[in-house]
Design brief:
The chain is α+β, with helices and mostly antiparallel strands and 339 residues long. It is built from eleven helices and eleven strands. The chain has two domains: 6-172 and 313-338, Triger factor/SurA peptide-binding fold; 191-297, Chitinase A, domain 3. Helix 3 (82-105) crosses helix 6 (144-164).
Length: 339
C-alpha cells in the first residue's frame, strides 16, 4: 500500500508523490490541517538513531498516518491493533531518520526553487492562512525556519529514495513478459459462469405445507423472472423477492468457478445461452431461478491483457525488497536505540 510522508500530522502527498510510492507500506492519509493531540505524547524520547532523538510525538504522528481513523474516535486506537500500529510506526520513523542521515552523509541538497515550490504547495493544503499559522505556533513554536527545515528533511528523504528505491524498481515490459512466460499456471483461469439468482429459501424446520407454499412462491417468481428482459430488470426483481444474500447485489454472483457449483446448477447453466432464465432448480429444500450472463471456458490470460497490472505488481514487490534491503544496510552501520 502507499503512504505519503507526514509532517506534524499533515501529508505532503502533493509535494512528495514519489516518496508516497516507495517510502512505506501503509495506506495513504487525507490531508489533516490540525495538530496531533498532545494528551498522549509530550515529547518524551522513545528512540535514538546515531544520537538523533525521536520522540513519542513523532511516533504518534506516524501512528495516525498508519491508522487515520483514530482521529475520528478522540485519538484512540483499537486495543487489539495498537501494538502492531505502534511497532510499525516506530520502525517507520527510525527508517526515515536513517534515510535522512544517509542523504546528509552523501551531501545531497535541495535547490532553492524546489524549496520555494514545496513551501508554497505545503501552504496550499490549509483552508485558511489562520490554520497554517496555528500549526506553526503549536508545532514549531512560531518558527517558519523550523517548518522549512522539516520540509527540506522530507525532500531529502524523497530524493534518496528516488535514487535507491524508485529509480531501481521500474519493471520493463521484457521483464514482465519473462515472468509471464516462466509462470504459466499463474495466469490460467478455470471454466466459470457469471449469473444471477432468485431464491426461495426454506425455514430451519420446514413442514410439507411450508414446502408447498415455497414452491408456489418460486413458481410465481419464475413467472415474473421470465417476463424480465435484461440484467437490470432481473436484478431489480431479485432485490424485491429473493431470499438469498445476493439480492442486495441484484442477485449477481459475478464469475464462479464451475467446480464450486452444485451439479444441478452446472447442468442447467450448460444448457442455457447468455440472457436465458432457467426453470426452478431445487437444491435440497431451496428453490432457485438462475439467469446466465456469461459462460467462460477455461483458458489463459493474454500477456497484452495482463501486462500493465503485472508490471505494477512486480514493481511493488521490487519496491518492497529494495526498501527492506536499504533499511537493513543502513541499520547495519548505525546505532539504533529503542528507549
Amino acid at each position: 500500500m502507499k503512504r505519503a510522508i507526514t509532517i506534524c500530522g499533515m501529508v505532503l502527498a502533493v509535494l512528495l508523490p514519489a516518496r508516497a510510492q516507495v517510502a512505506a507500506s501503509h495506506g495513504s492519509m487525507a490531508v489533516a490541517t490540525h495538530s496531533v493531540p498532545n494528551v498522549q505524547a509530550m515529547g518524551k524520547p522513545i528512540a535514538r538513531v546515531n544520537g538523533a532523538v525521536l520522540t513519542d510525538r513523532d511516533l504518534l504522528r506516524e501512528m495516525y498516518a498508519i491508522f487515520p481513523y483514530a482521529r475520528q474516535h478522540n485519538g484512540g486506537f483499537p486495543k487489539e491493533m495498537e501494538p502492531g500500529i505502534r511497532n510499525g510506526a516506530l520502525q517507520m520513523i527510525i527508517f526515515e531518520e536513517l534515510v535522512y542521515q544517509e542523504a546528509l552523509r552523501r551531501k545531497m541538497t535541495v535547490g532553492p526553487l524546489r524549496m520555494q515550490k514545496a513551501e508554497a504547495e505545503f501552504r496550499k493544503q490549509f483552508a485558511t492562512p489562520e490554520q497554517y499559522q496555528e500549526l506553526v505556533k503549536t508545532e514549531f513554536n512560531g518558527s517558519q525556519q523550523l517548518v522549512r527545515e522539516k520540509i527540506r528533511r522530507s525532500l531529502l528523504i524523497d530524493a534518496l529514495l528516488q535514487v535507491e528505491v524508485a529509480g531501481k524498481s521500474v519493471v520493463s515490459t521484457a521483464e514482465a513478459k519473462a515472468f509471464y512466460d516462466k509462470n504459466p499456471a499463474r495466469f490460467q483461469y478455470p471454466e466459470s459462469f457469471a449469473f444471477q439468482t432468485i431464491s426461495v429459501l426454506p425455514l430451519e424446520k420446514t413442514t410439507p405445507k411450508q414446502l408447498k407454499e415455497g414452491r408456489k412462491r418460486a413458481e410465481d417468481g419464475l413467472r415474473q423472472a421470465k417476463a424480465t428482459k435484461n440484467y437490470e430488470e432481473f436484478g431489480m426483481l431479485a432485490e424485491k423477492i429473493s431470499d438469498d444474500d445476493y439480492r442486495v447485489m441484484m442477485g449477481d454472483h459475478k464469475f464462479v468457478d464451475r467446480a464450486k457449483l452444485a451439479p444441478t446448477v452446472v447442468q442447467a447453466l450448460l444448457a442455457m445461452q447468455p440472457g436465458q432464465i432457467s426453470d426452478i432448480l431445487q437444491i435440497e429444500q431451496a428453490y432457485t431461478i438462475v439467469r446466465l450472463n456469461k459462460h467462460v471456458l477455461a483458458g489463459k490470460m493474454s500477456f497484452t491483457d495482463i501486462k500493465d497490472k503485472l508490471k505494477k505488481e512486480l514493481e511493488a514487490k521490487k519496491t518492497d525488497n529494495l526498501r527492506a534491503g536499504l533499511d537493513k544496510k543502513l541499520r547495519s552501520r548505525a546505532k539504533v536505540e529503542v528507549l
